Known about the structure:
260 residues; alpha/beta; Rossmann fold; 2 domains; 6-stranded mixed β-sheet; 4-stranded antiparallel β-sheet; 12 strands; globular
Amino acid sequence: MILSAKQCSCQVEDKILLDQVDFEVEAGLRYAVIGPNGAGKSTLLKALCRLMTLSAGDCILSGKKMSAFSQRDLATWISYVSQTVFNTNGFTVHEFVLMGRYPHLSPFTSLRKTDRDKVDAALEMTGMQTFAQRRLDTLSGGERQKVMIAAAMVQEARIMLLDEPTAFLDPLQQDQVYALLETIRARTRVTLIEVTHDVNRAALSHDIILGLRQGRVVFCGTPEELMQPEVLYAIYGKHFTFARHPENNCQVVMPTGKSI
């Protein structure tokens, strides 16, 4: 196991966001984190890359407590693609992606040709090479998301955390992002941990699904194990209608066709 959470809790003032979370992550697989709004999904990712501090428990990364890693060393293991692009201050696409190389540089060294080559390769793989000199704030949502993924790629971390990477994207852009992530995983064997609200996408595109409810893990298993009425009810507190996918015969959930 490349990563495991041991009794991890996260509390802000009197609100418990994560409550004694336990799970293990196997290297090279694709994980989905699902659950209702407020279940702790985004908090979990932020805790895994130390954007939020655990109030109890710890994570074990490659056999070592994560609390023992410096932030720079942690960045060689874990990258993070957020839902939204933070203040870019007029950076171009190339400049923004180049910042992803920071774990591999020191304050006393200048950028090397290998650093620039890795940026060029990431922009080519994501289809963003023609946008290299465009300002990030002039791009569409789908284009910005690809730039964020390119920056995570050049970080060369073993684990990539993605917080709803297809939120606000149209169906074509969603397919493009998922195809890109699968290409990256196939080429680099990076471990992907992705928060999503799309239960069907979680089941069709991931190896293991983690279900959260009220900050607790209520399910961890395969897509086949997830797509059971009692399992989804335990996660979401509602009943689902099921059907078989016409292409691969996997069970998927269907809209009810009526208002609740």
